[in-house]
Amino acid sequence: MAIYKGYSTLRSQFKSVKLNDSDLIKRDLLNHFGIRKGEKLGNPSFGSSIHDIIMEPLTEPTKNVLLEEIQEIIESDPRVALQELIVDELPQGNGIGAQVSLLYVDSNQTETMLVRFLNQDGVVNSTVETL
Question: What is the pTM of this model?
Fold first, then answer.
C-alpha cells in the first residue's frame, strides 16, 4: 500500500497521472529544482538558483554553491535523507550532473539517482535516471 499519493501530468501521454511513494518524491524534488527562487507565488524563498549558475564554469566555488543548493533542497523534504552527493560536469559540457543517494525514510530503502541539469537552447531541464 502506498504511503504517499499524488499526481503528475508531465509526459503522461494519456497514461495514468497517479504517482506513489518514491516516484512521487522524485517528481517533487525535480519540481523543486525546476522552479526558480522567487517564482512561487506566496513563497519567494522556495525554488532553486541552479538556473542562474548552470552556464558558469564548474570551478570549486561554483561546485560548492551547487552542492549547498542541492543539499538544501533535498533536506527540505522530510520524506528523504541525503546519503551522498557528487556534482560534476556532464560529458560534452552540455550541463551538470548530480549523483544523489537518498534514503526514503518511511520505507528505509536507498536509491541512487543521477539528476541532470541540461542546458539546451537556453532552457534548463532537470531529468532523473535511477542508477
Answer: 0.80
